[in-house]
Amino acid sequence: MSANTRFPVAIHILAFAAIYPGQCSSERIAESANTNPVVIRRLNGQLKKAGLLRIRNGAAGTELARPPEEITLKEVYSAVKTKESSHLFSTHQRPNPDCPVGGNILGAIREPLDAAQEAVELALDKYTIAGVVEIIRKGIKER
Amino acid sequence: MSANTRFPVAIHILAFAAIYPGQCSSERIAESANTNPVVIRRLNGQLKKAGLLRIRNGAAGTELARPPEEITLKEVYSAVKTKESSHLFSTHQRPNPDCPVGGNILGAIREPLDAAQEAVELALDKYTIAGVVEIIRKGIKER
DNA sequence: CAAAGTGTAACTATAATAGTTACAAAAGGG
DNA sequence: CCCTTTTGTAACTATTATAGTTACACTTTG
Question: Which of these, A22, A60, A118, B32, is most buried using a 10 Å CB contact count?
């Protein structure tokens, strides 16, 4: 697969940890997200480093490091983005610097691209893991 | 390459057409953007279909279809996005529907992801090709 | 110390993207 | 009316970010 699913899967992990505390082995989460345990562990590592998740070896001791109301989706997004995925749009690699347009295009589009990036993060900052969990719980009840 | 550079290159094309009317063969633009003429022609086709560019065969007759002040970067973005690139984040393909979390996660994250998407387009709508061209022209003068 | 689970390296597989070649069709100039 | 230039597009290859997988040493808990 080539699509970047890290962000949605990371939300999945945190929501799972919120709903099933003490039952969060990478294997169980992987089953829920329909992916591979190693994929979960890799994301776990990033979420741990970002201070969102607490993980204990040897036991399925994964749990949220902070209350879900305090964890915004912006933080999750930031936690799992790589250098490549960190910009919404790649600027084309090397426009010809000898051409007046090529030599100035990158500077000319930086502001709008940065603004778009900023807008995404601002939008995501308004949502929390608690909000996601709430909707999931509502869905569970309606069965 | 795997990165999506269509959006930046599309802006490049339109800016080039605004600055060098009557001299816009796909070959010249490709040289400026440091890519292949066919890549330019493919994007040209999408920009033409979106009503942003007018193209004549046989002569380098590419020109803006509308005044650059009226062409927003949102329109450009919309013109060149594919089904795959149309969503900022792919939702992970098939979370396990038998798990309460897996069965409800997609519904729970749709709203924030849509909001992020909307935020990007709103941000891009504030910028125009004319604005980009202005900055390029400023850069040219400063040599 | 045994069982369960994590961390991580190393590799393969997938898929979206750009790059390239080739050529028929269109337009315009002489 | 033909010749040149250029576009439109198909068909293919190359690249690369990503996920998936296997394997195993290490850690924690009971």
Answer: B32
Report whether A75 contacts B86 (CB < 8 A).
Answer: no
The answer to whether the pTM exceeds 0.70 is yes
Contact assignment for B135 to A12 by CB distance below 8 Å: no
Kindly determine whether residue A102 and residue B140, on different chains, have CB atoms separated by under 8 Å: no
- C-alpha–C-alpha distance, residues A6 and B92, integer Å: 8
* Residues 78-107/B with CB < 7 A to strand C: 82, 84-85
* Integer CA distances (angstroms), B30 to B12, B26, B39, B67, B73, in order: 10, 6, 8, 23, 20
Interacting residues of B37 by C-beta distance below 8 A, sequence separation 6+? B25, B26, B27, B29, B30
Distance CA A40, CA A24 (A): 11
Rounded to 5°, angle at Cα A45 from A71 and A64: 35
Q: Residue B60: what pLDDT?
A: 64
The pLDDT tens digits of the residues spanning A44-59 come to 999 999 999 999 887 7
**Total number of domains constituting chain A:** 1
Given a contact cutoff of 8 angstroms between Cβ atoms, the answer to whether B95 and A12 are in contact is: yes
Amino acid B127: pLDDT: 98
Enumerate the β-bridge partners of residue B72. B128
Q: Token pair 């990158």 is at which residue?
A: A106
In this structure, what CATH number is given to the domain that contains residue B114? 1.10.10.10
B25: Cβ under 7 Å from strand C? no
D strand bases under 7 Å from protein CB: 4-11, 14-23, 26-30
